[in-house]
Design brief:
Blueprint (H helix, E strand, L loop, with lengths): L1 E2 L5 E2 L57 E2 L9 E2 L4 E2 L7 E3 L6 E7 L15 E5 L3 E5 L34 E8 L2 E2 L5 E3 L2 E6 L2 E8 L6
Antiparallel strand pairs: 1-7, 2-6, 2-8, 3-6, 4-5, 7-10, 8-9, 10-13, 11-12, 13-14
Length: about 220
């Protein structure tokens, strides 16, 4: 995965069977299999990796994970290759050492090739904003799963507007525009978090209000 200007954690998302499905404002329960799936859209060719803007905070320069750590504060233990870093099975998630709020985030990622597994076991990871709002990372290329859990979903809340996923092994991009929640002096919520997501150049989440932490 490549990352440029960002606030995020990268975690292995886990689906827990038997967890009660919450009713959403859309009228659909969480993870309903018969919820309509977004149309498949073939994205245009991108020139990746994209150069970082001049004022960006570069969280991965292609050579080391010095800007990252594990949740306990120890050094990030994912594998670094030639211009990329990769999940190490069983190592858990990693997160940025620096904290952020409102951000424009560019992430580049690729799912395993050859693909392995089905449904949520197929290249499952996630981009967590402020450690609690997940934009799903998943191999959704000709691979069925529930609509609110496929690539680009605000996990468990909003399916993407389109399935713009590339084939396994191909680099793809997320551009995430995140506005953090606002609170009053007494700690009560004034404005919820909102997020817009562009996947491979295609708008898939349009200023959506996030309904509390994703689960």
């Amino acid at each position: 995965m490549r990352s440029h200007a960002a606030t995020l954690s990268l975690l292995l998302a886990v689906t827990v069977p038997g967890v009660a499905a919450a009713q959403q404002p859309s009228g659909w329960k969480q993870h309903e299999w018969n919820r309509p799936h977004p149309p498949v859209v073939e994205p245009a060719t991108q020139n990746l990796p994209a150069p970082a803007p001049a004022d960006a905070i570069v969280l991965f320069d292609g050579s080391d994970l010095g800007a990252w750590q594990r949740s306990d504060g120890t050094a990030a233990n994912w594998e670094v290759g030639d211009g990329y870093f990769e999940v190490v099975p069983g190592a858990g998630g990693i997160q940025t050492r620096q904290g952020f709020g409102d951000v424009q985030l560019h992430v580049e990622w690729a799912s395993p090739n050859p693909p392995r597994g089905t449904n949520q076991d197929r290249g499952n990871s996630g981009v967590f904003l402020m450690g609690r709002y997940e934009i799903q990372v998943l191999d959704s290329y000709e691979a069925p799963s529930y609509a609110d859990g496929q690539a680009g979903a605000i996990y468990g809340q909003y399916p993407p507007l389109a399935n713009a996923t590339r084939a396994p092994g191909e680099w793809q991009s997320y551009d995430i525009f995140f506005r953090r929640p606002r609170f009053d002096a007494d700690g009560s919520l004034q404005e919820p978090a909102r997020v817009t997501v562009v996947h491979n150049g295609i708008l898939i989440q349009n200023n959506e209000e996030i309904l509390g932490p994703t689960s």
